[in-house]
Each structure stands twice: as structure tokens, then as C-alpha cells.
Write a structure and sequence with these properties.
Glutamine Phosphoribosylpyrophosphate, subunit 1, domain 1, Rossmann fold, 6-stranded antiparallel sheet, binds guanosine-5'-monophosphate, binds iron/sulfur cluster, binds magnesium ion
């Protein structure tokens, strides 16, 4: 039943393996498993729009369907339907390039002890050296993803149980990884010792469990959140039930703050914190740090909305919709390549002149990366009659690219890495520009002393 893409490895993409994805695994014996996996994965679509895949097993066979694009495209012709006891799914983040069918996850290996399926969210920082080492000793790679190195390492020592193998090999793997693994009789969730990327476990009903990147996927299948998998921990699910096992070296947790700022869905709860509440508090903090006079607060939809509500409440300024988003347009970087960024912004957003005309506007967005989208949005707000535009950003200036999984492009494209605040202000065309302070961010993610958060892209 297994279908395989027999595409040769494409080496030209080896330098671009920055991936931020969504993963899910279910243990729910019965005929509904494929549908449940589809429903749960659909709730994680925001974590990746480049490709999607689902694999279901009954222990003997694997029913696997993968495709490029959004889930609606990837599964348009066919969806997995087989009854089984376990399933895993993956949606992959869209980056420029890097989209080749052989890289679509889940990935499978077939060592003597039984198959291993893998869905990976994260980026391994020693992937290239692991790959060279594995290739030198005869391992074959079928993809250009770093995830396959984990799969090949797991396939080597097949005399041990899968969880022992996981515990053994992960000491050699560096970087960010939240994994869901499926074998004929086990489902295993693994979170790296720094806990860069989220991963949680929930219960559908007694004996039935879900592992997912975000709790919104648990809600989608009506599962109850049990808890997050801890950094350096495995959640092992089998016919005997659920258990946790620690494999990690004791290291400092480095949870990605961008999950809270921008990436995760606001209805998710990550490491015990509501993303919506955190975003709201970031907006409140921005208002406390803002020292200008203004008339209204408007968000850049969708990701600026929650912070704008917090800003409005604490700053005592009315919240208005000043930009309307075309709901059929996705995140701007998955637009067709031929059209300009300005046209892309105009396709996505349109100003509400009635709310903007003559107003001193506080414009709220979650982050500025290259500054190109923001500049187009600001000029749109001005053309619609705003008297002043004060841009408030609910994250500090991004001055470093991320090596752990979110594609914030290379350093020279990051506007805050190459320009000073007055220069950025001038190139955006704003009357004033305010970034959230690092301490303000730490306070609002409930980590004032910076013991658990990664802030590497702000340093
Ligand atoms: P810019 O003005 O830097 O061109 O674009 C900023 C906008 O891009 C923000 O609204 C932010 O929500 C969005 N954005 C899209 N992709 C990413 C990403 O991978 N990381 C971050 N931090 N923001 C992104
Ligand atoms: Fe997240 Fe930035 Fe750390 Fe990357 S560098 S994991 S984007 S906080
Ligand atoms: Mg945005």
C-alpha cells in the first residue's frame, strides 16, 4: 500500500534547510484514525503551507499520502482511508526554494526491526557533518532534509528498542527538533533538550492519545491537553498506554519566543501559557513603553490584532480596523513570484479610509523582518489619509538570522541588522517607530530573568 516518490537527492538545496513545520501523531485504534489525523493536521496548517503528508499504520501496512501545497491541494485527489491504530502527519513551512517532492514528510526507513516513520519540526545545526559521516559509512539519503539524518541514525542499531535508540542517538544530534516517530507498535514524541519548538500530548479517550506541535490541533480532534513534552523528554505511547521518559542532558531551556510573538496560533497553549494572553500582554507592554500622542490603534491583520487589543486597553486609545485582509490570501511570502511585493500587499490588504482619514494612527505589527511589507503597508495607510503614523512592533529589532528553524532570511536582508533606528524609521516612512524592549518581552512571556527563552535573533 505504501507509495514512494523515487526522486534522486537534490544537493543544490543543501544550504537552505530552515524549516518551521507542524507535526502530529495519533494513537487511536479504529476506522477514524486517518480522518482524525487529517482534522488535527488541518489545525496546524499555519505552521506550513509548502507540503503535507499523512501516514496511517495497522502494524503491517502503511497507507501514506503526500503532496505539495496546502492540505486542500495535497489531499485533493486522495486522502488516507485505511483503518489502523496509529498515524502521523506533517505540514512543512514555505521558504523560497527548498520545495521538492522527495522532501515531503513523513519520511520512512525500513530497518530489520520494523519500519520507522518520522515527522520533524526544527533545524539540526550539525546536519551536514552527520550526513557526511553517515554517507561515509554507507547510509543512503533519499532527501535533502536534515530530518533524514535522524532516521538513518535510528536505523543503524536495530538490536535496541526504538526508545533506547532514540535516547542513544539524540546525544549526537544538535539543534532544534520536535519529532513524532511511528513504529509498528509505538508512537513516540520527542522534544530536544532546549525545547526550541513546542510539542504537547493530549488524550482523546482512555487509551487514545494525540501528540501535536500545538494544542489547537488537540482541540480540533476534541482531545484534552495532558501537558507539554518537556525539553529532553520522550512521550511513548503503545497498547500499554502513555509514559514519559527523559533522555536529555540537563541543559538550559531555550523556547523560541517567536512562537508566542508570531508563529503559533493564538488559541494554542504553549508550555502552559496561552498564546493569546501573551500576545495581548505584549501589546499592553508596548503601550506602557510608548510615549507619543495618538488618536487610534490599528493592527496589521492578522498577526498584529491581539497585541493591538492589548495596546488599546492599556494605552486608552480606541481600537479600530484600518486595514481589511482578503481572507483568501495566505501569508504574503507564498504569493506568486512574478508579482511585486507592493502588489502582493495590495492583494492582501486594503485600507478603511473612513477610519484612517485625519487620524494620528498607532499601527501595530508583531515583527519587522526585511521591512519591505511594512513600508508598503505604511504608505497605504498614509494614502488613505492618516495624519501621522506611529509604528509599534511587539518584538525587539531582529538583528540575527535564526539557526533553529524560523526563516528570517540572511543577515544582510534583516533591516535592523544593517540600519539604525532613525534609518529604519526613514525607510518605512513613519513619524515614529517603537520596538518592544527585550526586558519587556521577557517580562510578558513570564521569564523575567531569561532562564527559559531563546532570544538569539535579537542579540
Ligand atoms: P516585513 O515588513 O519585514 O517585510 O514583514 C513583516 C511582516 O511579515 C509581519 O507582519 C510578520 O507577521 C510577517 N512574517 C511573515 N513571515 C515571517 C517570519 O518567518 N518571521 C517573522 N518574524 N515574521 C514573518
Ligand atoms: Fe526563535 Fe529567534 Fe531563537 Fe530562532 S533565534 S528559535 S526565531 S527566538
Ligand atoms: Mg503579519
Amino acid at each position: 500500500m505504501t507509495t514512494r516518490d523515487s526522486i534522486a537527492p537534490v544537493r543544490f538545496l543543501a544550504h537552505r534547510r530552515r524549516e518551521e513545520c507542524g507535526v502530529i501523531g495519533l494513537w487511536a485504534p479504529g476506522p477514524r484514525i486517518a480522518d482524525l489525523c487529517y482534522l488535527g493536521l488541518f489545525a496546524l496548517q499555519h505552521r506550513g503551507q509548502e507540503s503535507a503528508g499523512i501516514a496511517v499504520t495497522n502494524g503491517l501496512h502503511i497507507d501514506e499520502v503526500k503532496g505539495m501545497g496546502l492540505m486542500t491541494e495535497a489531499f485533493r485527489k486522495k486522502r488516507p482511508t485505511m483503518a489502523g491504530h496509529a498515524a502521523i502527519g506533517h505540514v512543512r513551512y514555505s521558504t523560497q526554494g527548498g520545495s521538492v517532492p522527495c522532501n515531503i514528510q513523513p519520511l520512512f526507513a525500513y530497518p530489520p526491526g520494523g519500519f520507522i516513520g518520522l515527522a520533524h519540526n526544527g533545524t539540526l545545526t550539525n546536519a551536514e557533518s552527520l550526513r557526511q559521516e553517515l554517507e561515509a559509512t554507507g547510509s543512503l539519503f533519499r532527501t535533502t532534509t536534515d530530518s533524514e539524518a535522524i532516521l538513518n541514525l535510528l536505523s543503524l542499531s536495530s538490536d535496541l528498542s526504538v526508545e533506547d535508540r532514540v535516547a542513544n542517538i539524540l546525544h549526537r544530534v544538535e539543534g532544534a527538533y520536535s519529532l513524532v516517530l511511528m513504529t509498528p507498535d509505538r508512537l513516540i514524541g520527542v522534544r530536544d533538550p532546549q525545547g526550541y519548538r513546542p510539542l504537547c500530548v493530549g488524550q482523546l479517550q482512555p487509551g487514545q492519545y494525540v501528540i501535536a506541535s500545538e494544542s489547537c490541533a488537540l482541540d480540533a480532534v476534541k482531545a484534552e491537553l495532558i501537558r507539554d513534552i518537556r525539553p529532553g523528554e520522550m512521550a511513548i505511547i503503545s497498547a500499554e498506554g502513555l509514559r514519559f521518559r527523559s533522555f536529555g542532558l540537563a541543559t538550559r531551556q531555550s523556547a523560541c519566543v517567536f512562537e508566542h510573538i508570531y508563529f503559533a496560533r493564538p488559541d494554542s497553549v504553549l508550555d502552559g501559557q496561552s498564546v493569546w494572553r501573551t500576545r495581548f500582554r505584549l501589546g499592553q507592554q508596548l503601550a506602557r513603553e510608548f510615549d507619543r500622542e495618538a488618536d487610534i490603534v490599528i493592527p496589521v491583520p492578522d498577526t498584529g490584532i491581539t497585541a493591538a487589543l492589548g495596546f488599546s486597553q492599556t494605552g486608552g486609545l480606541p481600537y479600530l480596523e484600518g486595514l481589511i485582509k482578503n481572507r483568501y490570501v495566505g501569508r504574503s511570502f507564498i504569493m506568486p513570484q512574478q508579482i511585486s511585493r507592493a502588489t502582493a500587499v495590495e492583494m492582501k490588504l486594503n485600507p478603511v479610509r473612513a477610519n484612517l482619514e485625519g487620524q494620528r494612527v498607532v499601527l501595530i505589527d508583531d515583527s519587522i523582518v526585511r521591512g519591505t511589507t511594512s513600508a508598503h503597508i505604511i504608505s497605504m495607510v498614509r494614502r488613505a489619509g492618516a495624519k501621522e503614523v506611529h509604528m509599534c512592533v511587539s518584538s525587539p529589532p531582529i538583528t540575527q538570522p535564526c539557526y533553529y528553524g524560523i526563516d528570517t532570511s540572511i543577515r544582510k536582508e534583516l533591516i535592523a541588522a544593517v540600519k539604525t533606528l532613525p534609518e529604519i524609521q526613514a525607510s518605512l516612512g513613519v513619524d515614529s517607530l517603537h520596538y518592544l524592549s527585550k526586558q519587556g518581552l521577557l517580562d510578558q512571556v513570564n521569564d523575567p530573568e531569561n532562564r527559559r527563552s531563546c532570544l538569539a535573533c535579537f542579540d
